[in-house]
Amino acid sequence: MKILLKRQLxxxxxxxxxxxxxxxxxxxxxxxxxxxxxLIISLIILTxxxxxxxxxxxxxxxxxxxxxxxxxxEIYGNNLxxxxxxxxxxxxxxxxxxxxxxxxxxxxxxxSAWIDYLLENEIKSxxxxxxxxxxxxxxxxxxxxxxxxxxxxxxDGLNAFFQTQFVSSQVISEEIFRIQINTLIxxxxxxxxxxxxxxxxxxxxxxxxxxxxxDYYNFKLEINTTFGQVNFxxxxxxxxxxxxxQTCSIPLFIGTSDDVxxxxxxNNTNSNFFIxxxxxxxxLQATLECFYNRSCIDNILFMKNGDIDxxxxxxxxxxxxxxxxxxxxxxxxxVHRVMINSLLSNISFSSYYNKCHPQLCTIEKISRQNVFSxxxxxxxxxxxxxxxxxxxxxxxxxxxxxxxxxxxxxRKIFTCTNEYEITTRLHFILLIILMLIFYFITFLPSSLxxxxxxxxxxxxxxxxxxxxxEIVQCSCSQISFNYETFLNVQPYFHEICSSDFMSNxxxxxxxxxxxxxxxxxYTDFRLSAVGQFQLLISFCQLSQQTIxxxxxxxxxxxxxxxxxxxxxxxxxxxxxxMKEFHLKTSKSFGTTLSILREISETNKLMSGYxxxxxxxxxxxxxxxxxxxxTSLNYEGCDCALSSKCTQSSRGMKVGCYPxxxxxxxxxxxxxxxxxxxxxxxxxxxxxxxxxxxxxITSTIVFIVQELMIENYSIVMSYENYxxxxxxxxxxxxxxGHHNAIDTITMLIGLYGGLVIISRWFALFIFQxxxxxxxQIHPVL
Length: 780
Hints:
Blueprint: H1 2-10, H2 22-52, E1 54-62, H3 66-76, E2 80-82, E3 88-90, E4 95-101, H4 112-124, H5 136-163, E5 165-167, H6 174-210, E6 219-224, E7 229-234, E8 236-237, E9 240-241, E10 249-253, E11 270-276, H7 279-285, H8 294-300, H9 308-314, H10 331-336, E12 340-347, H11 349-356, E13 360-368, H12 371-402, H13 406-413, H14 419-443, E14 447-454, H15 458-467, E15 473-476, E16 480-482, E17 487-493, H16 504-514, H17 525-555, E18 558-560, H18 567-603, E19 613-620, E20 625-631, E21 633-634, E22 637-638, E23 646-649, E24 652-655, H19 658-664, H20 673-676, H21 700-705, E25 709-716, H22 718-725, E26 727-736, H23 740-773
Antiparallel strand pairs: 1-13, 2-13, 3-5, 4-12, 6-7, 8-9, 10-11, 14-26, 15-26, 16-18, 17-25, 19-20, 21-22, 23-24
């Protein structure tokens, strides 16, 4: 048996032929052994490769509901992709926000009845100015206005926020979804705080620069009855001058009517309210500690001095609840957060999922093939592989057999001795003809050819863009990401904002310098110089603050793009975005500035510098005195008719209001040493070093409306942008012929079918030929 098996293996011949000789048999047996060896090695390599390599399979789930998605996400995580049928969804569809305001905004302490009672008693009060009963009504009225303003700003902001669209191409997991939405709400709230604070800061800057009269709390009158003159003198609070600092203040005390003429009245309890240059500034410094204390409220009601009506009316007024807020928190801190303690937000993932409405989900499964799949793969390849190898070895064996006798080889190619040789040669010729036909049909015609590259990196994408003139299209796997991930913007402001003229030292210097002039005419710039320079400092600070806040908002704004864009296109988009950013930010700031100018124009408030109105025609008798106001005139323009009247003075402008005069001035004086400071204690700006987009004759209002911005340094990282987009594949298309190698590969794939077809045609033609030559033709 063993000898028989060995003999069978030794004599095994898979390539027998009709012509048998020792040489032919030798080559056939060698070919057989090589064929078996290569076939086994190929199958082993295929088996090992199939068992090692990981394959990606995709499973599709149609119309998944939320519970299905949740379960699948827990199992497959990021390998689960569910595409939304609705790419953009308004925030209102799945978010509700309820602001919880500070309890003072809903308390009786800012009610009309309480404030009216306090205001009435302010008029009747015999207390000096530093007692709470003489100021509290006015300050609480301001606090009520702040509450109303905060609520209006918040409601308007929420309405705009709810109309914003949430863009997502695929369902986001609930955890990430809630993190993103909470971040968006926080960003909106910060933006609302900044906008509110910006308006308040601009109002405060305007008050300080114009030195608006404030019930004689920032200026007092000095009347010279001999010469009939009235002068305004700045008031000091604890050695702090309202002329230099509008935040000057002293505490308000709680006392009774017995303390009116008491020299020890200042020892009474501090109310934690203040009196200062402006009631607005004073209320910002105050705390609400008194309203958390019953006895403090009773003292305000004058319970100890028989104010029965007031006590009975407000005896049951509720104190503030200490557990809700810190009692010693300043009102400035409360206002800075728009009077809001917290935001009660409800984020509905179910509503978001339903609006997204995915119709199918795809699960990406990466795994090795199982044994059954490997066996099936080997079996399916075995037939084609064995046939291909047989043909290859058969050709090789015949080549070695025929090459020994070239002349006989050449002669026998064209000599057919039997039907088998005829059909074989005919089969061979037809096969070649068919393959040539398919080759030229496939290769010669022009067609649109698409080349696709999976998971390209930046280097591959750049090489493709250079190598082909066609547009390379890459789909972003992440269509939304923040600008801060690939963009850095640095603003540069006008040089005046970083000069010594924007310092407190400069303000004190010109204040002390101008004090030596006892009487300055209202048309002399030095009279209102402090106010104008304080305004210019505020404009620089507010511009920088506005730009910084807006850039912070831009950084967390989503850049949305479904396709990767080339560097030049992205650069153009960023430039356009920055132009729109600057236009929108400057327009918003300019609108607020214009509103304040119109408010000043309408109210005709009197400036403490006496630049728009002055007291005149003093009428004094034994029992009373009367002061009459007269409007001032600037080059034929009357302040009673327009608050924008100005005229030139010492290289700057003077006018009805320092605010208006500054806005209509230019910065030319700052580049002239004789104009800005003849004493040379402060050096003028160097005009030869000016590299500014603003002309030296540009008005300050134009520069301020541009937020004092010279330019932006924009640094964009295309590499970071590419990584954030993370394209899953790139493709480009061109018109041309198919690749010759691809065509040959296709023909190899068709070879098996063409062999059968050509064999059938060869047999059919040969049989047809035989039938025709065998026909018997009758001879007539």
